[in-house]
Amino acid sequence: MASSGLQLLGFCLAVAGLAATAAATFMVEWKLQSQGSHRMNQGLWMKCSGSHRTTCEIYESLLKLPFEVQVTSAVMLLSILISTLALIVSTVGMKCTRFMEQRVKTKSTVASIGGIMFIVSGLLTVIITSWYVNKIVQSFHKSQDILRYEFGKAVFVSWAGGLLTVAGGMFLSCRRCARSSSGSISSNQLISNGSNYV
């Protein structure tokens, strides 16, 4: 199990990633189209348009939306759900908490499971966001219209959230870090014990 410092760092990164992923999921700027001062933004749940005054409209039915929007919204919600569960699991398994203090090995395993869940969640976010961007790029090149959609800043927020979540999960589930730190501690103890005998 990773040291307390690495676990806390990983936990903070994962929480920041979860917050960014949740923010990106409900942002409107996933896909944008502009003509002069008039702009149209489309998100996973609503669309906004206007020049000086922007009006937003929530989608009446998700089933009527394009396939990539349906899949992306579903996977993003799944990613948030997994990260939320990983948040609870990691809190139980971290060294700085008082849960399961008498079961060191079980606590270590729980922390690693939480980290793996964060990694899975982050990978889902990065993969589905990249797939959504690829769909926009393909339609951009295939479309013959003057007005074509481009991907907006919500995509970059989603990418950042996914990468932060993966990084946090890697710190939480790191076992070599613990081995190296425990090895250094044991070697220092041996040196001190040997000096005492001398």
Give a short synopsis of this structure.
By secondary structure, this protein is α+β, with helices and mostly antiparallel strands. The protein has five helices and five strands; from the N terminus they run αββββααβαα.
Molecular structure report:
The protein is α+β, with helices and mostly antiparallel strands. 66% of the residues lie in helices and 11% in strands. It has a five-stranded antiparallel beta sheet with strand order 4-3-2-1-5. β2 and β3 (46-50) form a beta hairpin. α1 runs antiparallel to α2 (67-93) and α3 packs antiparallel against α4.
SSE diagram, text form:
Blueprint: H1 4-25, E1 31-35, E2 38-42, E3 46-50, E4 55-58, H2 67-93, H3 104-142, E5 150-151, H4 153-172, H5 176-197
Antiparallel strand pairs: 1-2, 1-5, 2-3, 3-4
